[in-house]
Structures are given as structure tokens and as C-alpha cells.
Amino acid sequence: MNKDTRLSGVLHVLLHLGQVSVPLTSEKLAATMGTNPAIFRRTMAGLRKAGHVHSGKGHGGGWLLAQPLTEITLLDVYQALGRPALFAFGNRSANPACKVEQAVNEALGETLAQAEALFVQRFGAITLDRLMPSHASALAVHGHPHV
Questions:
Q1: Which domain of life is it from (predicted)?
Q2: CATH code reported for the domain at 6-86+128-145
């Protein structure tokens, strides 16, 4: 099963955007996520809609933070990405009248709800500035500076 790495990739991009005062292109930022610019722009659309980033087209265009890292939480980013599934498993519904299936689904549902509530609580308490390493270098893609 493939893991969804969008959250990790977007956090990487946002932290680098927190280091610059000039727009960075989709091409440059897509490279940090290991994707192409079109997929990058689609991934970032929710963050733009939520007001966390700005983007401009044409010469001199690109991406900038719309808010400081101190005002953006991990939960904000997770929600802007459409709340990707936290767990790869879910309830079975082949025989909803089966008492065993109902008991299993209830136990799984309760546990997953509790895990998600803890996740949301903790992510809501962490702002992106807390993720920034103290001696982070400017944007580099695979060891090559790009700023």
C-alpha cells in the first residue's frame, strides 16, 4: 500500500516559503515534493483557498505565504488538504444484520474516532514555526540551492 505523503511534502514547502520574501515558482516547489508542477498546484489549491498561501501567474509570479508560520497549525494544513484518511482500514459492511459484524464495527469505529480526536487536538496545538530547524538552509532540492 502506498502512503499519502502530501502532508509531509506540503509542510516541507511551507517551511521553505517561510524563509523567503519573493515568490517561488510551482516548478521549483514541485521539485521539493518530487512531483510535477500541475500536481503541485492542485495539491496547494486548498491551502490557497484557506488563505494560507498566495499564488501569482506570469513573470515574477509564484507562491508566497499569506500568513506567518506562527499562525498556521498542522491541523490547518491537514484540513486544507481535504482531511486525508488517517488509517487504511475501515469497517466491513457485507452483512449489516450480523451481530458479530456490528460489534466489530462499533469497537473499530469508537477506537478510530478516539484516535482521530487525539490527532486533531495535537495537530491543532502545533504551529509551523515550531517545525523550523534552528539552522535551516534556504530552499534546496536534492542538495542544490534554488533561492
A1: Bacteria
A2: 1.10.10.10
